[in-house]
Amino acid sequence: MDRAAVAATDGQIGAVNDESWVAVDLSDDLSADADDGVAIEDRAVFRTEKIKGVLLHPYRVLIFVRLIAFTLFVIWRISHRNPDAMWLWVTSIAGEFWFGFSWLLDQLPKLNPINRVPDLAVLRQRFDRADGTSRLPGLDIFVTTADPFKEPILSTANSVLSILAADYPVERNTCYLSDDSGMLLTYEAMAEAAKFATVWVPFCRKHGIEPRGPESYFELKSHPYMGRSQEDFVNDRRRVRKEYDEFKARINGLEHDIKQRSDAHNAARGLKDGEPRATWMADGTQWEGTWVEPSENHRKGDHAGIVQVLVNHPSHSRQFGPPASADNPLDFSMVDVRLPMLVYVSREKRPGFNHEKKAGAMNALTRCSAVLTNSPFILNLDCDHYINNSQALRAGICFMLGRDSDTVAFVDSIPRASHPSPFAAAAAVVADEATISEAVAVTTAAYEKKTGWGSNIGWVYGTVTEDVVTGYRMHIKGWRSRYCSIYPHAFIGTAPINLTERLYQVLRWSTGSLEIFFSRNNPLLGSTFLHPLQRVAYINITTYPFTAIFLIFYTTVPALSFVTGHFIVQRPTTMFYVYLAIVLGTLLILAVLEVKWAGVTVFEWFRNGQFWMTASCSAYLAAVCQVVVKVVFRRDISFKLTSKQPAGDEKKDPYADLYVVRWTWLMVTPIIIILVNIIGSAVAFAKVLDGEWTHWLKVAGGVFFNFWVLFHLYPFAKGLLGRHGKTPVVVLVWWAFTFVITAVLYINIPHIHGPGGKHGAHGGRHSSHHHAGNSLHFTVWP
Ligand SMILES: O=c1ccn([C@@H]2O[C@H](COP(=O)(O)OP(=O)(O)O[C@H]3O[C@H](CO)[C@@H](O)[C@H](O)[C@H]3O)[C@@H](O)[C@H]2O)c(=O)[nH]1
Ligand SMILES: [Mn+2]
What we know:
single chain, 782 residues, 23 helices, 7% strand, globular, binds uridine-5'-diphosphate-glucose, membrane, transmembrane, cell wall biogenesis/degradation, transferase, cellulose synthase (UDP-forming) activity
């Protein structure tokens, strides 16, 4: 490893937002990095930071104030019945209880925010040796992919490249790619990535490149220079960029190449009609996985297991590259050119066996890696995640070692004790056939039958959010987590920006959460190893979708009150308004404080609120329905892969997908809510115009709330209108259209006046009520 590069990147690791945090054990007036003055020998491998007192104390006081105000508010509500509409009164109070309860679930675990900051200089001093070797523990990194088309292979390749190029001792770091599609396309893309890595990785090391995923690196507008010679860097970068473009072209051509090659082989064999047409590897053998033209034993969900070592385990001593020459202009003579081991794994799949989605893939990888490298630590990335900070692996490992370098001996002993892995030995071992067939044997479809895998061992089955439940199982067994957020961000992943896809993703997450709630892994039942606040956090994460039921009530019923004339609150008093104001005001200030130390903007927080509203009344509701059906009728929930954006196409607008509308039933409820609120405000307007209600100022209060709901659903409406929605005018025109039509109809068609209409005195009273009734909502939003 190039020392200059290390030093340059090293200085960058820090907390995300340094001004709000202070080291624990230090008073507020000392800066967070005060222990830079302490000698390296005396420093811990990471330090703990808390929020500065000036922010934290008011934060906690506000939480307390809000709790009291909320309690008084609910007491007020219970003691002021609404005899006109008792059902409204009862259901709304139930809703307020729920909102209050879920606010507490969300708030309590945040009472004492803690961040950890790894000290990489200490880690290096204790674990790295002068000759370039290291005593750091082994680390097996798993990347999962399930479909080379839905999950673009270029993105998967980038993920793998970012891992191979990360700063970690190469002989102790292995990357496993799990391919649930079993397709040659994925395999060959990985083989290409391994080839390109021989240029990319030494280039990263030589010049201290950040980030080390090539796509995200070359996307950067400027390329700040970290290493030694500027001119050398510019030349090398141009050269590597060219290599990367060629690599991309090869990846894009793979599908065609495989097809052509296979056609040639099949033609040479003179296949008769109806005979299966095999897919052929470059070495002239038949691919054992899924074929391009699927046939028996060679289709998705029905194929053999495959384990292929793409990059073998490296030697244990540094290997410098060649100097620049005529056909190789890159000078790697001062750079270690070894690569970490890279293994392609496609577990066996057979009809009749539940392959248990990602959790099943992770368990197969766990066993397969145990046979090959058996590192004591595992890291998992999805195919669309990448390492964004080359120090991320070292940063993470800091928390696995404690303050005490003696633990290394212990950590080293784990692989030796648990499995006689060939690579745990000091010398480099080439994966021999016996070992490989052993690795294949542990990934067979039948392997887990009548075992504890998926329930007590490994990743847990039975939910579409296996990550949540697996973390939970670890915590109830006594494992502890540590929160660490560094800058530049350690990892970056992608999420769909298309409304439909995003709603589906949130549907899956909320469904998975509820599945856990209705299972033996309900956090109310967890062992006492769970910290009480951790239990609260798990209750929150497994119950939040229930909010949908109350939210839909609160975003429709008040608007309908304009039509029916029945309101949630009958006669608000001054105290009612006072409580309400405190409950609302504190919520806002709490958010502003959180936003400050979290390093996001108030705008982002608000956007998040808008999406929360949209998702709650669509995906969360659907999740509740799905899981009720599952629990009652024992029907399994299907898993839909989250669609990924195509990577690496510069000509394409990255936001093109944003306004592509694909209809889904999930959109029905938000649409109804939008309509109800427009109609509600239009009717209120009409009643005022009509002279039915005279207290127009008070009506305005109610209408304001309708607008507030609409404002939250505005991005949804824009998304729904597709490309046209790019101009906000279109949304406004639709809104005005609906509003005017409703108001005109209301005024001109006498029979839609409800029984409560045309009572001057009553009308006045009612109008004052909605204001209150409608305002309730925002009271209680968590
Ligand atoms: O049968 C399957 C299905 C999925 N996957 C992989 O699982 C990962 C996550 O799937 P995706 O559809 O992308 O879900 P996301 O919602 O984007 O993923 C988030 O949510 C999942 C839980 O639902 C977690 O497993 C992921 O780590 C987390 O990033 C991807 O790498 C897939 O290739 C498989 O390997 N096999
Ligand atoms: Mn994803």
